[in-house]
Each structure stands twice: as C-alpha cells, then as structure tokens.
Amino acid sequence: MSHHALLPQTSAFYQQRSQDAIHWHPWAPRTFQKARGLGKPIFLHIGYGWCHWCERMASEAFRHPAIATYISRYFIPVALDRDQRPDLANAFMHVTAAMTGKTGWPLNLFLTPEGKPYYGGTYFPPQAEVPGTPTFQEALAEALRAWEEDRERVEDIAQEMARQMGEGLLPLLNSTAPLDLSPEQAAAEARANLASEFDAQNGGFGEAPKFPQPLVLLWLLRRAEHGDERAQTMALTSLLAMARGGIYDVLGGGFHQYTLDAGWREPRFEKSLPTNALLAQAYTTAYRLTGQEAYRQIASRTLDYLTHTLALPNGLLGSGQSGESESPPGEGRYYMWTAAEVRAALPVDEADLLIAAYDLAEIPRTLQRHLTAEALEAQFGLPTGRAHERVEAAKARLLAARQRRMSPPVDDTAITAWNALAIRTFAQAGRDLDAPRYTQTAVRIAEALLTHVRGENSLGRSWYRGQIGEPAFLEDYAAAGWALLALHKYQAPLTPDTTFWLYEATWFLEQIEALFAAEWGYYDTTPAHNFPFGRPQELLDGDAPSGNALAATLLAAFAKITHQNAFQVKAQAMLDPMMPLLVRHPTAFPQWLFALECLTTPSTT
Predict the structure, then answer these.
(1) DSSP H or E segment with residue 595
(2) How many CA atoms lie within 13 A of 171 on its CB side?
(3) What is the mean predicted confidence (pLDDT) over 216-245?
(4) Residue of 173, 280, 168 lying closest to 592 (CA atoms)
(5) Average pLDDT of 59-69?
(6) What pLDDT does residue 2 have?
(7) How confident is the model at residue 220 (pLDDT cuts 50, 70, 90)?
(8) C-alpha to C-alpha distance for 540 and 575, rounded to whole angstroms
(9) Same domain for 485 and 389?
C-alpha cells in the first residue's frame, strides 16, 4: 500500500500530495488519536489544486526527503483541501489572521493533538525574503521549540484560538448597534462607503494586491438598474479597466485571480470557476444595462473559456486552472509573448499590428492594450473600422499558435456550489445575450449536478473522477437552489413542464431547513462534518458567496416567486441583524446586499 493511501482520493489537491515525500495524514479522528498517542503536535497544510503558492511550497519543501524526514520525526503532517472543507478552511483562516495579521493560501499551521492551533502562517519561503516572515525551517523549529519548552503558553494560545474558531464572527451580530434605516437608505449608505474605497483611476476597490470582487460589481449593477448612476459608474469603470489589463486573457478568454498591482497589469495567473462565472455574469449584466458590444464580447469569451477549458466529460465544470506551465516553463509564461515570438507566429503585417497594439518587446509580457483602434488606424494608414477587424483576426491566429504550447493543468474537481453559480450565469446569459447555447449549457450543468452529486436524500460537496467528496455544506444547497430558480425564470417558459426547476429548487430549500436550521440563520455544516469547534456560521463573502448570504438570497427569491409571506419573514429576520455590517463593510458582505436588493426591489432573483 502506498504511504499516501490514507489520504482521500476525492480531489486533485489530494492527488498532488501523493507526489510529496511527506507521509500525509487525513483530517480524521484516527489522525488525532495517533497524535495524542505519540504526544506530537500536528503540522496542518491547507491548500487547493490550482494554487500557485501551494505548488511553490510543495516543490521547495514537501518533496525534499530531508524536510519530510524532519516533519515526520517531530510532527503528524495533515493535508487538507480548502475546497473540500470550506468550514475548516474559513475557521483556520480567521485564526491565522488573528495570530499573524495576514491571510492567504496556503495556510500552514501547528496544532495541539486535539486540533487546536497555536502557531502558523501562510506561505513560508525556503530562504529569508521578507523581514518578519520566518523561513519554513525556522517556522518548524519555532513550533517544535514552543511545544517542547513552553507547553503551558502553547495550551493557553490553543485554547483561545479554539474559542475564537467556535464563535466565528457571530459576536459581531450581537455587539453591533442596530441601524434604523430603510432598505433604500441602507443601500445608499453602503454605496457611499464603497465609493470611499473606489479606485477612480484604475477601477476596482482598495489597493494592491487588487482582486476583481465580482460580487461587489454585481450588486452595483443591480443598483444601476434601479437608477443609481454612481453605482453604474463604479461598476462599468472597473469592468472596462479589468478588460484592458493583464488580468484578462484577451486570447483565450477568462480572468486571472488577482493582480499584484493596483492597475490590473501584473496578474497572479490562476483562473478559478467562481471568479470567472461571476465576472461573466457581471459583463452580461453590463451589456443588458448599456447595450455596448464590448461587454457582450468579454462575457461570451469568458463563458466560452469555461465551456472549452473547465468542462468535464460528465457535464460539470472543474474548479480552476493553474497558472504554472511546463513548456514554456514558469508561472504565467503560457500567456506571455515577446515581439520575436509574435513575429514567428504571424504574417508580417499582422505581427506589426499586434506588436504596436500591445506594446510588445523582447521581455515576455501579457497582452495589454496599448493603442486604441483609432491610433492604430492612424499609425498604419488603415480605413476607419479596419483596425479592430485586423486585430481580432491576428489574435485568433495567435491563439491557434498558443494552443500548440502546453497549457497549465486544470483542476478537474467539480465543486457543487461553484457549478451552481455557473448555472445562474449561463441561464442569464442565454437570455441577455440572445444565445440559446448558453441556456443549453446551464441545463446540462444542472442535469449533471442532479445526476452525479445528488442522491435520493443527499448531496455531495464535490465530484472527482467518479468519486463524491464530503457531504455538501449550506453553501452548496443554497447555491444549487438559487441556480435552479434561475432556470425556472429563464428556461422553464420555453419547456412543456414549467414547474420542474421550481420543484427541484424547493427540494434544496427543504433540505436546508431540515439539515442546517439554527436559532439565527443556518449552520454551515451538518453533524456529519464533525467540525471540532461547534457548528460554524460563516458571514463573510469571499471569492464566492457565503452560505448564509446565499440562503437569505434564496429565501428572498422564493418570496418573490411564490408570494408566501413566510419566506419574506425568514429572509428579513436574517438580514436585520446584518444591516450594520453590510452597510459599513460592503466589500466584505456584498451577497448580503444582493439579498437585501432581491427582497426589497422588483425583478431581482
């Protein structure tokens, strides 16, 4: 038996760990029993399949026999897939922030044999790089020293961290004074707070590193549809700026995960399903709002990226694509071009045009628009309107050349909640872009989800090469129910059975009430997940919406569709204590704002 056979075979991340020299253990009761029996602390590594810094740590540390021997001698090493266990990942992320002031992936934590954290961080480099950040070997040594020489302090820290993990952010609901604002006043104040973080020069919110934050953009676009001009300006400025920057793949479609700078120029090259599904929905909504072809084109190319690159044989979508390629080697090199490479791939006239349009030289770089079509027409003496056509033709030829390169690997783990977000996007795009093929894609993903990850009275968190992963979480049930309501809205009127998708969505809502109901809102887990610190209730929205925010949105949508007051009351009861948080911190709670919009304004489901 392989020394990695104890790891579950339910995701690409776990498969990757089989290449390491470390004898990884699963997050399981038998692992903690072993740690207690040996009196060893636990080294916990949390990552995911398409994570750049996870792969860096694996190549720099986990595949080195000497480091593996040291870890196995003094620790019990545990590997945990972030996407398989979002409950644990979120809880450990919050305590890492509390301990270090930093968050990010991977997480590398040191736990007592009971699973309580006492030390850790994010990526640890092999050599000293940033003042104040230990190397990985220094972190290992400090964690061991504290365990062997300062056990009482370790236990005190671990106990406090475990307490915080059990509480999560729920104390904020009870400690924040309520706001006496109407829904419209709350939305206006949230928008004003967003405006204070808006980067008017580059679009987006906050400083570097810059994330697309599609949930924020989607809420702003909903506000724009109800006449909020400032919301429209912030959303459209951001969407256009991203499309011009290096974060957007102008050849193959789709967006990279974030950029290291504030101007969208220097991307971290991973692509994820939730970010791209939500951004495609934002560009689709922008097209519906403005009728401008640029938004339609970007939406279509992003949707086509999902169907061409992330699609799995059973109809579901994989969770993301790495930024690393082997030929040409290096992070992002697959997406970069030199002037010489373009000249080798294209006829002279097309090469000259693209090199000027994207300001290419001898240093490899991504394609970021440098000259407008009008400037190109003036420089090359082209008739009006011809530059755009010729650039598009040259890009198509360059894409064909890129496809002869070895593309970065795709994580073929299908996450239920993320596939549900894609269903909503494709369903809306089918209508708004007048593209029936996208409606058909939405139906195909939905049918695959119901077939491959749902049982008679169960739902899986994921599907990987025929294996169903952990039991589904609140976010999976809520996202799936909301997705099927989108099909009820956009696709059902075109079919003989107009109630099928509504019936299926109702099943998901009933399961939420049966499995996750709490005194306020819902738990993220069921008892089957064996979360060691109680039953968590995540409030923050991240790259994808939180489970409770999705549940509130689902209830609001059901209230609109069925006109049943019970759904309205339940959604309002969830939103009322959240109002101070979502108004004051809109970038942290955008799906909650969307739920409020859905509950209190027409035509948003």
Answers:
(1) helix 590-600
(2) 6
(3) 97
(4) 173
(5) 96
(6) 45
(7) very high
(8) 13
(9) no
Residue 1: its pLDDT value, please?
Answer: 36
CB neighbour class for 602 (10 Å; exposed up to 12, middle 13-18, buried from 19): exposed
289's tokens:
């709002």
Note the helical H segments in 455-544.
474-490, 500-516
CA distance 453 to 432: 29
List 121's β-bridge partners, or say none: 108
CA 481 to centroid of chain Cα atoms: 19
* Measured distance CA(305)–CA(253) in Å, rounded: 5
DSSP characters over 316-376:
-B-SEE-SEEETTEEETGGG-B-HHHHHHHS-HHHHHHHHHHHT--SS-B-----S-HHHH
Residue 221 lies in a domain: yes
| Same domain membership, residue 592 and residue 506 | yes
Give the list of residues 6+ apart from residue 540 with CB closer than 8 angstroms, or none. Answer: 90, 169, 546, 588, 589
End-to-end CA distance of the chain: 51
193 and 236 in a single domain? The answer is yes
Tell me the residue type at 588: A
The model's pLDDT over 236-245, given as tens digits with 9 standing for 90+, comes to 999 999 999 9
What strands lie across the sheet with 467-468, from one edge to the other? 414-415, 462-464, 467-468
Whether residue 327 is predicted with pLDDT greater than 50 in this model: the reply is yes
Residue with tokens 């989108």: 486
Domain of residue 569: give its range.
183-323+411-600
Residue 540 · residue 588 · CB < 8 Å: yes
- Tokens 């590193």: give the residue: 209
Q: How confident is the model at residue 7 (pLDDT cuts 50, 70, 90)?
A: confident
Place of tokens 């269903």: 423
Of 372, 407, 442, which residue sits at a domain end?
407
Q: Of 28, 83, 86, 46, which is closest to residue 537 (Cα–Cα)?
A: 86
Mean pLDDT of 23-42: 97
Give the CA distances from residue 445 to residues 102, 173, 312, in Å, rounded to whole numbers and listed in that order: 36, 36, 10
Amino acid, single-letter form, for residue 582: L
**Under 8 Å CB-to-CB from 1, ≥6 apart: which residues?**
none
Residue 605 maps to a domain? no
Residue 460, in any domain of the structure: yes
Number of independent structural domains in the chain: 3
Specify the pTM: 0.96
Q: pLDDT tens for residues 506-542?
A: 999 999 999 999 999 999 999 999 999 999 999 999 9
- Cα–Cα distances (Å) from 541 to 5, 215, 586, in that order, read 34, 8, 10
Given CA atoms 258, 260, 265, 271 in this order, what sign does their dihedral have? negative
For residues 78 and 210, membership in a common domain is answered with: no
Cα 530 to Cα 237: distance, rounded to the nearest angstrom: 45
Angle at 551 between CA 81 and CA 447, to 5 degrees: 70
Q: How many angstroms separate the CA atoms of 369 and 358, rounded?
A: 5
The CA–CA distances, whole Å, from 135 to 47, 148, 319 equal: 18, 20, 30
Please answer whether residues 52 and 270 qualify as being in contact, where contact means their C-beta atoms are separated by less than 8 angstroms. yes
The confidence score (pLDDT) of residue 218 equals 98
* pLDDT at res. 5: 53
Helix ranges (DSSP H) in 372-473: 373-380, 386-402, 416-432, 436-452
- What is the tens place of the pLDDT at every residue in 361-413? 999 999 999 999 999 999 999 999 899 999 999 999 999 999 999 999 999 99
DSSP label at 494? G
Q: What is the CATH number of the domain that holds 515?
A: 1.50.10.10
